[in-house]
Amino acid sequence: QLQLVESGGGLVQPGGSLRLSCTASGFTLDDYAIAWFRQAPGKEREGVSCITSSGPSTNYADSVKGRFTISRDNAKNMVYLQMNSLEAEDTGVYYCAAGGIRLCVLWPLLAGMDYWGKGILVTVSS
Q1: b vs e for 21-46, b when ≥16 Cβ sit within 10 Å of the residue's Cβ?
Q2: Up-side HSE of residue 116: CA atoms within 13 Å toward CB?
Q3: pLDDT in tens, 48-90
Q4: Which residues make beta-bridge pairs with 60?
Q5: Which end of the chain is more exposed for a tag (fewer CB within 10 A), N or C?
């Protein structure tokens, strides 16, 4: 079964850090661009970051620039989202998505995905 799996979420205090991981089951991420999206309670899903398959080049939402870093380790078949200086507004379900070249070109639109993960909850609260 081809799927993406997120891990690393949980409860963290404001100002804290978490590292989310995204890995693939049944396929390798080498040739895919990977994007992170999040959905806060009562809000629409929004783009957080995107990383291309080669280069790689990265994009970030203005709200997370300087605090979040996306990276990939193709040898481990993993993509990471390092989240520092977390704020209550960062609370939500985080999803990773894999797609072709168009994924990061179209990002932050919800388009160009071939696969979605089921999401993982991040709660920033004291």
Answers
A1: bbbbeeeebeebbbbbbbeeeeeebe
A2: 13
A3: 999 999 989 999 999 999 999 999 999 999 999 999 999 999 9
A4: 49
A5: N
